[in-house]
């Protein structure tokens, strides 16, 4: 027998069956994928330019227009996670020398500023409008005026649902204000879409994006995005090509049939992810946006009351400022947050998360999104938390 040339043997772990335990995902995302959406993703693969797949892409476009409340023709899904959509927005809107104003009210503003800086347009991140704190005071559109006046930015970035703090940013009047200053409004709705009202056209939002794995209950890996006519004009006026070929909206617009031209191959889309996203958008369309918003609000209220009844302190004091999809609660005194999250995972099969960015070590984050947004899940997570408070180590210092 010839001696094998292989120096790396087949990994033993791959010779065992795939292990995926049952878990209730009540962190800030991903949330659980219901069987209908899972089944859609498990359907047989088709060619990425087959008419049936192009039809699914058209359906995703229509579903996104509904979820975003927009008529924008440049509406599609990015083949990538929420970060990819964030990069697609910034890469396509900005050119070297353009300024962007970033409202930093948690980690997502920090990330947007980071991406803008990497674009090598230092002017890009030169102004930071701040909308900090956990209440609504200072969150009226006027917070942006000094930055708009001083930096004359081309784009203002803001996060609608700040998943690191659990704060919902009001958007009323912000688009209008930006437009008065010749600025485009870019909004991240990854954590809020379907869980809190947003009206892209009425609120004059120029670029809006979201993700698949939160309220839409699809696996991560595709991200709906839409550009207003104003934003589209900016894309058409670019003097330079966007720095990413993969995220070039000119190519993507063609691939998604948004430019009226015959569709050309750009990349091989994650077709099965699109099947799942289509189904997630279909579930939202069947339920109706208003019912979905109302359900998330009611379930969040029930959770907040239950947390208070356990003697815990909510991180966001003002009820109106709370993000209905993700609730932040202060780590109770004397406890290590990691003990609590590990206890819930090990003893109750429930994922909740610690803080992120500015809230690391300070809060626990509980997400109730899409199909996970139910009264029964509120009761389940409260029961598990009560158990954790009784049984996790508490320092008396
Ligand atoms: N923006 C917000 C508000 C988010 O909550 C997240 C995900 N936690 C993202 C952007 C990034 O999305 P992804 O992890 O899918 O890249």
UniProtKB/TrEMBL annotation:
Which terms under GO biological process does the entry name? glycine biosynthetic process, by transamination of glyoxylate
Entry-linked SUPFAM superfamilies:
PLP-dependent transferases
Give the protein family. Answer: Belongs to the class-V pyridoxal-phosphate-dependent aminotransferase family.
What are its cofactors? Answer: pyridoxal 5'-phosphate
Listed A to Z, the keywords are: Aminotransferase, Pyridoxal phosphate, Transferase
According to UniProt, the reaction catalysed is: glyoxylate + L-alanine = glycine + pyruvate; L-serine + pyruvate = 3-hydroxypyruvate + L-alanine
Write one Gene Ontology MF term.
Answer: L-serine-pyruvate transaminase activity
Q: Which organism is it from?
A: Chaetorhynchus papuensis (pygmy drongo)
Q: Which GO terms describe its cellular component?
A: peroxisome
* Name used for this protein in its record: Alanine--glyoxylate aminotransferase
Q: Which residues bind substrate?
A: 365
Specify the Aminotransferase class V domain's residue ranges.
Answer: 45-381
CDD domains from the xrefs?
AGAT_like (cd06451)
Q: Does the keyword Ribonucleoprotein apply?
A: no
Its Enzyme Commission number? Answer: 2.6.1.44, 2.6.1.51
Q: Which residues carry this modification: N6-(pyridoxal phosphate)lysine?
A: 214
């Amino acid at each position: 027998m010839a001696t094998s040339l292989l120096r790396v043997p087949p990994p033993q772990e791959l010779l065992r069956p795939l292990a995926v335990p049952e878990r209730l995902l009540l962190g800030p995302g991903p949330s659980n994928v219901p069987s209908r959406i899972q089944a859609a993703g498990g359907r047989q693969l088709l060619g990425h330019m087959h008419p049936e797949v192009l039809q699914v892409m058209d359906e995703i476009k229509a579903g996104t227009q509904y979820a975003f409340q927009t008529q924008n023709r440049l509406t599609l899904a990015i083949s990538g996670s929420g970060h990819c959509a964030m990069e697609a927005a910034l890469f396509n809107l900005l050119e070297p020398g353009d300024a962007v104003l970033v409202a930093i009210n948690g980690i997502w503003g920090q990330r947007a500023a980071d991406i803008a800086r990497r674009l090598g347009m230092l002017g890009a991140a030169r102004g930071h409008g701040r909308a900090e704190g956990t209440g609504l005071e200072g969150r009226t559109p006027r917070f942006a005026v000094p930055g708009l006046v001083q930096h004359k930015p081309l784009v203002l970035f803001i996060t609608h649902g700040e998943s690191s703090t659990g704060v919902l940013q009001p958007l009323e009047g912000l688009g209008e204000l930006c437009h008065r200053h010749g600025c485009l409004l870019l909004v991240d709705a990854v954590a809020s879409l379907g869980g809190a009202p947003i009206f892209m056209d009425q609120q004059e939002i120029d670029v809006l994006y979201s993700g698949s794995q939160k309220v839409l209950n699809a696996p991560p890996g595709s991200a709906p995005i839409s550009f207003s006519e104003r934003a589209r004009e900016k894309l058409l006026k670019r003097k330079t090509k966007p720095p990413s070929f993969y995220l070039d909206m000119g190519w993507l617009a063609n691939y998604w049939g948004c430019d009226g031209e015959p569709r050309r191959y750009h990349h091989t889309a994650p077709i099965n992810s699109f099947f799942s996203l289509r189904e997630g958008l279909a579930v939202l369309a069947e339920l109706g946006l208003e019912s979905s918003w109302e359900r998330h609000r009611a379930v969040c209220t029930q959770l907040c009351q239950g947390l208070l009844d356990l003697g815990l302190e909510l991180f966001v004091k003002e009820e109106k400022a709370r993000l209905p999809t993700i609730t932040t609660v202060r780590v109770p005194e004397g406890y290590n947050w990691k003990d609590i999250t590990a206890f819930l995972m090990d003893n109750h099969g429930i994922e909740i998360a610690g803080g992120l960015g500015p809230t690391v070590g300070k809060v626990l984050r509980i997400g109730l999104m899409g199909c996970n947004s139910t009264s029964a899940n509120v009761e389940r997570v409260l029961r598990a938390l009560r158990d954790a408070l009784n049984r996790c180590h508490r320092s008396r210092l």
